[in-house]
Automatic annotation (TrEMBL), chains A, B:
<feature type="binding site">
    <location>
        <begin position="129"/>
        <end position="134"/>
    </location>
    <ligand>
        <name>S-adenosyl-L-methionine</name>
    </ligand>
</feature>
<dbReference type="InterPro" id="IPR023148">
    <property type="entry name" value="tRNA_m1G_MeTrfase_C_sf"/>
</dbReference>
<dbReference type="InterPro" id="IPR029028">
    <property type="entry name" value="Alpha/beta_knot_MTases"/>
</dbReference>
<protein>
    <recommendedName>
        <fullName>tRNA (guanine-N(1)-)-methyltransferase</fullName>
        <ecNumber>2.1.1.228</ecNumber>
    </recommendedName>
</protein>
<dbReference type="InterPro" id="IPR002649">
    <property type="entry name" value="tRNA_m1G_MeTrfase_TrmD"/>
</dbReference>
<keyword id="KW-0949">S-adenosyl-L-methionine</keyword>
<keyword id="KW-0963">Cytoplasm</keyword>
<dbReference type="GO" id="GO:0002939">
    <property type="term" value="P:tRNA N1-guanine methylation"/>
</dbReference>
<comment type="function">
    <text>Specifically methylates guanosine-37 in various tRNAs.</text>
</comment>
<comment type="similarity">
    <text>Belongs to the RNA methyltransferase TrmD family.</text>
</comment>
<keyword id="KW-0489">Methyltransferase</keyword>
<dbReference type="InterPro" id="IPR019230">
    <property type="entry name" value="RNA_MeTrfase_C_dom"/>
</dbReference>
<keyword id="KW-0819">tRNA processing</keyword>
<feature type="domain" description="tRNA methyltransferase TRMD/TRM10-type">
    <location>
        <begin position="1"/>
        <end position="221"/>
    </location>
</feature>
<dbReference type="GO" id="GO:0052906">
    <property type="term" value="F:tRNA (guanine(37)-N1)-methyltransferase activity"/>
</dbReference>
<dbReference type="InterPro" id="IPR016009">
    <property type="entry name" value="tRNA_MeTrfase_TRMD/TRM10"/>
</dbReference>
<feature type="binding site">
    <location>
        <position position="109"/>
    </location>
    <ligand>
        <name>S-adenosyl-L-methionine</name>
    </ligand>
</feature>
Length: 425, 425
């Protein structure tokens, strides 16, 4: 692998390249590293490479002329990458793909950035090592070079080592232990001492699953889990922030078709579907709100049929879902009931397809992790302003960039709950 | 800010600390860096810090005795962090939080990892700089130190500079331009030359939105967008991979309550709700499959009522959704129809709450980005084995760790579509 580093601080990499495995790889010829300083291509006496940004603002921007000359002078550029927080996030998969290239050039920006016309002049892929900002691309380039280099054949002493680490299986790595067997009263887990390969592999798989569940459940999105994995994970105690969330389905006051505020009738399947969502996602409860006494009586009969009546014997699963349903005359009554469940009043989060939003999904998720939250959905044409105005936050529409947003409240409740809690929370 | 780096390669940081802004910050006393080598605390003549892992496997593990002695010797450890790919991902928000600490100790692992009992002995937070594997924590520690240091007051020449960058607004940064105004035929965008602050700010906001849309739409999850932002984003041309996806709702062959295979009746609201999901998410189509001729006739009448009949005038939005519905006698007919739409046969992705899955959501998403895909949902108690067996992949259940998985097919279709396409695709 031939790396070319384009940086105004080529000396940044001196110790990186003379330490540990990188030094050995360079010595063994597994990787070769050229360093080029754009300053050497500047034609003015100060070797200027930066200038003030058009449109104003703080900081300096790396200009085109010297950088373009630099890049055109490279004898073996290979694929061009630029380290930038606005780039595609580096992953182990991308590192493996890059390790198959013959040559890579890493352009390290400095200052506020690089004149963007560089992307019109060269085929450069911006790559990010994470959602944080550095003063320049050098530290990020070191991460990229190290992660790619160790996947180049000949870099690692034992090839197997690269396969058993975090991300190789799509999961985080299992914990390691070494001598002494007992340290300050802490023993090595006995499974590791059995000498049974299968038992050790099973123990390590379970620890990987557990660590991933607690720290990076998002990684499961790209992983295939076996039935055995799932059985294990179901039994792992975990925080269930979903319990903090209650859905309220409001039938009035809501917007009617003509734009007026009023009350709409209850739909049997709304109650069933949202109760099933509530139970499947482990919510604290499902609060049905209607100002009409006879509608509440009707809802009570429907729910009673399944909870205690003939429906219970026919479909006990449905009874379990509908046991989460409570009926309220108005939103205040729902808030009081939820407050009593949790010993503190819930935050009120409204939903609206009309916008503008005042709370992101990430912020709502964080709130659910901390305190009870009542997420309010409107029937008819959506919640009345009276409800929106008193909410602690209004979530964005589910499909903000779509010109068509006419989901049923049944589907919207499911999607919203999944957005907030995903497959695990 | 006082950093202590615990590393068996303390010299790794020599040039990092003597380059650019880090060097200036050290010189100005804004940051102080101590480096400690655990080898110096080893008591054997080879200064050993690693040993073979219990349970076997390649590589070496950093042992406890010398590391524990090292950590206990630190005069000013502050908060303890360990760089590890299994850690919590570093973000700009976490960097800002860390920048408020008085002291941080960064433990750099080497080899396969560190004996996990270290976490029982010290309160150490594992931090990751990205989903890739390094040979040790040093390069990652450099990224962390740099991102944190530049948020320490006094590090940056102009404080404003740190606020206008990627992630400060929750979006990726806008592109920069500097002199010359014209370079090899490429002009600076004229908006930046107007001198009107509001116009420049609006241009930059739009470019930030656009870059984020194309490269990191996941960041919108944590962002509040104004109505103006949304109007702009709706008009930005974007790939719409959702068009490649069709949903098939199969009424037979499916599993019945008694475990036998058979056919279930069509539910009017299933057709409506899933059509509305299909239109809202911009799917290629919604294929309703029933082997019963009279059921298809009924479905045709329902759909016709809304598409051309009295329903069209009453609710044109519904007509638009139901225009995506097609009726088929069997899955093969649906596959042929979808194949004709796209000029190539679709991949067949099945769903099952029974498992085991053979395709992750991430893999299905990738497939949808490349070719037509028919995602099949079963009514009744789920798809029959005959359908599962011929599928190119079976997705995991939506709530794999829940003991209760009884969503209505209406809610499941919505959640599944949102999992695959999110708010943007």
């Amino acid at each position: 692998m031939h790396f070319t580093i384009v940086s105004i601080f080529p000396e940044f990499f001196d110790s990186f390249l003379s330490c540990g495995l990188m030094a050995k790889a360079v010595e063994a010829g597994v990787v070769a590293v050229d360093r080029i300083n754009p300053r050497d291509f500047a034609t003015d006496k100060h070797h200027t490479v930066d200038d003030r940004p058009y449109g104003g603002g703080p900081g300096m921007v790396m200009g085109l002329p010297t950088l373009v000359t630099t890049l055109r002078s490279l004898p073996k550029p290979g694929r061009l990458l630029m380290l930038s927080p606005a780039g595609r996030p580096l992953t182990q998969e991308i590192a493996a793909e890059l390790a198959t290239e013959e040559a890579l050039t890493l352009v390290c920006g400095r200052y506020e950035g690089i004149d963007a016309r560089i992307f019109d002049l060269f085929d450069i892929t911006p790559v990010s090592v994470g959602d944080f900002v550095l003063s320049g691309g050098e530290s990020a380039a070191a991460c990229l070079m190290e992660s790619v280099s160790r996947l180049v054949p000949g870099f690692m002493g034992k090839e197997a080592s690269a396969d058993e680490e975090s991300f190789a299986s799509g999961l985080l790595e299992y914990p390691h232990y070494t001598r002494p067997e007992m340290f300050e009263g802490l023993p090595v887990p006995p499974d590791l001492l059995t000498g049974h390969h299968a038992a050790i592999a099973a123990w390590r798989r379970r620890r990987s699953l557990e660590t991933t569940l607690h720290r990076r459940p998002d990684l499961f999105d790209a992983t295939i889990l076996s039935d055995e994995d799932l059985d294990f994970l179901r039994a792992v105690p975990r925080a269930r922030p979903g319990r903090n969330m209650h859905i309220a389905l409001v039938h009035g006051p809501v917007l009617l078709k003509d734009g007026k505020v009023g009350t709409v009738s209850l739909t049997n399947l709304d109650v069933h579907d949202i109760a099933r969502v509530s139970r499947t996602y482990g919510l604290g409860g499902f609060e049905v709100v209607s100002p009409l006494r006879d509608q509440l009586t009707l809802a009570g009969r429907i729910v009673g049929h399944w909870r205690e009546g003939p429906g219970l014997a026919a479909n006990p699963d449905r009874a379990e879902a509908l046991s989460l349903v409570r009926l309220h005359e108005d939103l205040d009554a729902a808030l009081v009931a939820v407050g009593k469940d949790h010993g503190q009043p819930p935050a009120l989060i409204a939903t609206s397809a009309r916008g503008p939003a005042t709370m992101s999904f990430a912020a709502a998720r964080e709130l659910i992790g901390k305190r009870p939250v009542l997420v309010v959905l409107g029937t008819g044409h959506g919640l009345a302003d009276a409800v929106l105005d008193r909410a602690d936050g209004i979530l964005p529409p589910l499909r903000p960039f779509s010109d068509y947003n006419h989901l049923s409240v049944r589907a919207a409740a499911g999607i919203l709950t999944d957005r907030l809690l995903g497959d695990i929370l």
